Every structure is written in structure tokens, then in C-alpha cells.
Amino acid sequence: MDELMATLKKEIFEQLNLHHVKPEDIGYDQPLFGEGLGLDSIDALELIVLLQQKYGIKLANPAEGPKIFYSIKTMAEYITDHKKQ
Amino acid sequence: MELYIKGIGCISPQLTYDNSVFLPEIKKHSGNRMMCIEPDYAPYFEAGSLRRMSRVVKFSAGAALIALKDSGVTQLDAITTGTGYGLLENSEKFLKSMAESTGPVLSPTSFIQSTHNTVGATIALITGCNAHNNTFSHKGFSFESALIDTRLLAVEGATNVLVGAHDEISEKTFALMEKLHVFRNNEDAEIKAYEKGGNGVVAGEGAAFFILSATKGEGDYGILVDNAIFYNPESTIEVKELIEEFLERNKVGLENIDVVISGINGDAKSDILSHEINHLLFAHQTIVLFKHLCGEYMTASSFGFWLAAKMLIAQQIPESVILKNRHRRPGYILLYNVFQNDHSVMLLKAC
């Protein structure tokens, strides 16, 4: 799980061009949207694309988005659960 | 309707983003293209918003914010922009990812940021301006059309309008155009070399933005009196007559024009008409060039407009832009630009 979260963090920083933030300043539990990293709706689209391109996971229910993309940890848990299926 | 120039912002292949100086040193670009000299954008944008901006969005929105700050205007009634090619770099990026993708989904950011109105929309988001926002993409008439729209908006009651234009050099499009042999090396950037001309043009890019206002104020740069476009005129005589009619409708005699800013681009073949017009009409005016400073691109006339505004407020003409000096102070300035078949004129005067 730790390895996946570290990889995911690296991929998110690359995909979203987050050069203004240091990766070590963002914890795995920290919110990605709102008061956390401050991501927006375009970033949400990028994260959906990332899940599909890198992990072959298609978001079945968009309403689950806020829960899945809450933090790097919740994303990693979702990937782990759905990779097993 | 006359409009007052309240603020200017220009990011170009010369040091133009600093409004406190006026072409202090000419940057000579080697090769066949002139790329922008860009400022540190940190004072203009939040770090988070920069991450999604391509180079042209940064230098265009940057120029717009410089103009806005320069004017002191806080409330915009409209944003009008012009661009010939739009956002090439992001378009190329998206098309490349589409060509290389094996999956059903693509990263959306470069697509979202590839539309021609991305710059206008970005400025609107930064300034919180929900008013009229229009982008004109009409080849060599793009900036000119934005100016016409601005003048019409002023007639309808708009007080302060941000108007400007932008175009960028991108790798793929530049490489494709290179194969068409439209560019030449900028071996000699001296103005005299542009008089003689060569085969082809030096590619250029840049963004210039202005705050135009219906109300007069202290420290205005100058006044935009009128502008007009002439599509595909058949002869030099036709252009001569169109310019004379344009001046007549503004009740300005040829003898009142002090300075002519000419869009001569250094390509001997396409400059023939401009040289003939200078010979026929402007024997007593100081002739100024600008494309040896910014290169040729569809909205290069916006750089010429910036040059006019700077000359009007400074009441001086830098040596580096003078082709023929008739020692006249810039009272009335006529900008005559040509981009292929697109001819345009802008009439400006001192306050």
C-alpha cells in the first residue's frame, strides 16, 4: 500500500503539473480538493483519466468521485480494491 | 468615436514588459525566429494558476495584467482579443496525445486550453470580469477586428475596455511552415536591411494589450481616432485612395500626419506595395518600422499600436525604429500594416 501511495503521489504531481508544491508537504491523508491541495473540477477530470490510463479502472459511478478522490490514501484503497476484481 | 489609451502592456521579442522604459536596448535575435523576452510571472499570477498555463497564455494574460495595472482601471466593461492562430502549443499537445493514445480517454487540460478564446477567458477569470468577452480570429485582421468591436462597444456605452492580441511560435507549426520556405534568417536586424528586403520573413510572436476608455484622464498615452481594414486591394492606387478616404472621413489632412508606422516585414516581394505607398503618400512624414523588432505574425500590428502609444506619450521616436526621419514630433500617427492580402490602418493622435 505504501509503495502504491508513493507511486500515485508522483503520478498526480506529474499529471497535474503541481510544481508549486513540494511532494513531501502533502500527506497521504490530506484532502486533495478544497483546503488541501486546492484542486478543481478540471483536476478531477485529470484524476479520472489517470485512473483509467495507468490502472485500467473506469469510474463506474461518478457520484462516488468525492469519496474516491478525497486523498491519495482513498485513491490507493480504491485502486487496490478494484484491481483485485 | 475617439478612445483614450489609459494603459499598455506588451510582452514581445524586445524588452517591452517594463513600462518605465522605452526600447532601451534592441535585442538582436539570430536564426529565423524571434521569441518573447518574458518577465518573472510570480508577481502577476498565483503559483497554483500558473501550472496550467502554456507559454502564450502566460505572456498574453501577463501583458493584459500589466496594461490593467498601468491604467489604474479596476472595473472592465469588456474584454476583446484578437489572435491569428490561437493556442498552437496546446492544440499540438492535444493532437499528439490523440494520435499516440491507445486508450479511450485523453488528458483534458490541453484540449480545454487549446481554444482561441482561452486567453480572453483566462483574463476574465483572473479579473473577475463577467462582461462582454469576444475573441476575433481573422488572420491579419484579428487585432483590427478587436479594435473595431471595442469602438462599437464604446458607442453603445462601454467606458473601459481591455483590448489586445496575441500569437505564438510553436515547434510543430513553425517546422511545417519552415518547409514552405516562408522564413529567412535574421542575419541583419538593422532597419536598413528591412528597407532593401530579402526572401521571406523572420517569424515573430508576442502579446500587446491596452485599456481603451471613452473618458479622458490624466496621463493618457494618446487617442485612438479610428481604424479600418482593406481586404485584398487590387493595386497601389486603390490602397492610396482608401487611405485618403480614411483620412478624409476623419477630417485629417495628409499634411497633418507626422509619423507613419509601416508594417514592412523585410520580404522584398510582399513589401513592394508598402514602399510604393510610402513614396506616393508619405514623402514628408517620418517613416517608422517595427517588424525588425518583433518579427512577422498575424497580430504584429498590435506591437505597432504599442509603439505608437509609447511614441505619443514620450513625444519622441527611438532611433532604432526610424527608416526615414523628417524630424516631426509625433502628433498624428498613422499605422499602415500589411499581412499578405490584409491591409489595415489605425489613426492615433497625441492628447
Annotation, overall tally of beta strands of chain B: 11
Helix-strand makeup class of chain B: alpha/beta
How do the helices and strands follow one another from N- to C-terminus of chain A?
HHHH
Using the 3D structure, state the CATH architecture of the largest domain in chain B.
Answer: 3-Layer(aba) Sandwich
Short description:
The complex is a heterodimer of chains A (85) and B (351). Chain A contains four helices and no strands. Chain A is mainly alpha-helical and 85 residues long.
Structure description:
The complex is a heterodimer of chains A (85) and B (351). In chain A, 54% of the residues lie in helices and 0% in strands. Chain A starts with a helix and ends with a helix. Chain A is built from four helices and no strands. With 85 residues, chain A is mainly α. Chain A is globular. Chain A has a single domain, classed as Orthogonal Bundle (Non-ribosomal Peptide Synthetase Peptidyl Carrier Protein, Chain A). Chain B is α/β, with parallel strands linked by helices and 351 residues long. Chain B is 35% helix and 21% strand. Chain B has twelve helices and eleven strands. An eleven-stranded mixed beta sheet of chain B has the order 3-2-4-5-1-6-11-10-7-8-9, with helices on both faces. In chain B, helix 2 packs across helix 5 (118-127) and helix 9 packs across helix 10. The model of chain B has no long low-confidence stretch (mean pLDDT 95).
